[in-house]
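can u pls check wat happens w/ copper (II) ion
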Amino acid sequence: MTSALITFAAATLSATLAATVVAAVPAAAQMQSQTATASFVGKDDKETGRALLTAGKNGVLMEVEVTGLPAGTWVAFHVHETGKCDPAHAHQSAGGHFNPDKTEHGFLAANGPHAGDMPNQYVGSDGTLRAQVFNSMVTLDDKANGIRGRALMIHAKADDNRSQPSGDAGDRLACAVIK
Ligand SMILES: [Cu+2]
Ligand SMILES: [Zn+2]
């Protein structure tokens, strides 16, 4: 009787431990693998730069380098909804800003921002944009805020952070599908 009880207790304990280990390992492995890349296409269909995206616990870090942009200018940088870049039609194929929560556009809008809204970036005197941007509203997983398969976009003008639907940011100069 006593030994049967001890055996039962030991089996329960090891089952509990096994469940804990199984639950912990896939989560850690998934975290490590969450990176993505994106290759920018300019207005003339040439590759003009790249982005490396890495997911952290609270968002996605984007390291970006893009050439051939208007020198000495602040430009808008967004995540757009559709991962389709079509320079023949001014990248309109990428759709509007990524907006899974159906909010308004702009950091300074009453009911903003979109998850795809990001701060304006400055293009150097050589026409090259180099930036590291952290967006805490998106992920690289397959949940509602995931941006893999969507597009990064750089515009000709700065985002005014208020105007609907997209901050009056002008032409779409460079587009990249997040892969
Ligand atoms: Cu945009
Ligand atoms: Zn927006």
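The pocket of zinc ion (ligand 2) is lined by residues 78, 97, 105, 114, 116-117, 166 (CB under 6 Å).
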